[in-house]
Amino acid sequence: MSEDVRKKAEEALTLVEEVSAAILPEPKNEIVPLATADAPVGSEIKKRMDEIDMGDTQSIVAFGSAAQAELQEISQAMLADVRNKDVGPAGDSLRGIVTTIRGFSVSELDVRRDRSWWEKLIGRAAPFAKFTAKFETVQGQIDKITEDLLKHEHTLLKDIKSLDMLYEKTLDFYDELALYIAAGEEKLRELDEDLIPAKEAAVQAADENDQVMVAQELRDLRAARDDLERRVHDLKLTRQVTMQSLPSIRLVQENDKSLVTKINSTLVNTVPLWETQLAQAVTIQRSAEAAAAVRDANDLTNELLTSNAKNLRDSNKMIREEMERGVFDIEAVKQANADLIGTINESLQIADEGKARRAAAEVELKKMETELRDTLASAKARRDGVGDTAATSVPAS
């Protein structure tokens, strides 16, 4: 948090204490009638009774409306400011700080964590790059949030003072309604006890020609009396609603005061504490990264030593074995010699078998030749007419 914001937060603390210490007066419930009112209150009641003109319906309808004019002006002035104001951003700013701090999750601080397939798919930055980016912007984010919180605090302080004024004007309106109600009830009593009976007597005493006119005046007076009674009843209902709005205003004030106190405590106490914790977190993370780098270097050294020793042993074994071998392995020579003897034996066997087959074939050929010669001689004797003896004889060669 910047020094300027810190000073503003400390200055606002005095205003917070002032609005928290303010005590608002309680409303009075009773309505004092004219007969029991003291001189100043009685004078105010009579003044309001003079606003009633029983011959003017508009004066009855508007009876008591002047009391609300000043309250309406205050309410409209507040609504002009509050219309575009939302208490929610103050709570959002508080949650924003929590979200900013909680953004440093343990898993994201692990620089060796592999990105998930979803992170790779959406092109999300590697954990270490993301952590670095967050560290570079978190101080600026906190400064911006604290400035927003300070603005909300000043707005809420202004609202609390406006609500104080609204409460006072509402209380004045509440007391003013009591005077109007007392004036209206006194006027009704005067009508019921004096004016209407006098008008009824006038109707009875009037001439026959004027009696209809006087009777109409009596009916108009009674109708105006009923209108005034209804107006007084509406004023009583308005006073009741006004009395209910007073604790509502105080409740809103208490909520605003609590929120202002919370915001000020966050600015003065919590934010510096979080900044300290953030600085510690970054230092711890850097120490962990340095330790991890040293460990990786040691691991690499040990891995090189063990792998080189193993490679030396394997290569030395292979080289020595090759050096001790002959040009030809004895087993290979023995196998070649056996294959050669086998080949010679197979050649001799095949030659003997071929010679035997040729001798047998020669005997068969001689036999077939003899049989063919005898057959041909027999066929020739039959053509020459020679008998059987001739057939058995062997022709001269």
Features:
mainly alpha, 397 residues, single chain, 11 helices, disordered C terminus
Task: Annotate the secondary structure layout.
Layout: H1 3-21, H2 39-49, H3 57-61, H4 69-82, H5 88-102, H6 106-109, H7 117-121, H8 127-205, H9 208-324, H10 330-384, H11 388-392
Helix pairs in contact: 1-8, 1-9, 2-8, 4-8, 5-8, 5-9, 8-9
Q: How do you describe this structure in short?
A:
The chain has eleven helices and no strands. With 397 residues, the chain is mainly alpha-helical.
Question: Would you write up a description of this structure?
Answer:
With 397 residues, the chain is an all-alpha fold. It has eleven helices and no strands. It has helices at 3-21, 39-49, 57-61, 69-82, 88-102, 106-109, 117-121, 127-205, 208-324, 330-384, 388-392. The N and C termini lie far apart (145 Å). 14% of the residues are buried. Residues 82-87 and 387-397 have low confidence and may be disordered.
Topology, number of strands: 0
Summarize the amount of helix as a percent range. over 70%
Average pLDDT metric: 75
Major β-sheet profile: none
Distance between the termini: 145 Å
Strand content: under 5%
Task: Provide the structure class.
Answer: mainly alpha
Number of helices: 11
What is the global morphology? elongated
Report Rg.
62 Å
List the uncertain runs.
82-87, 387-397
- The SSE order reads HHHHHHHHHHH
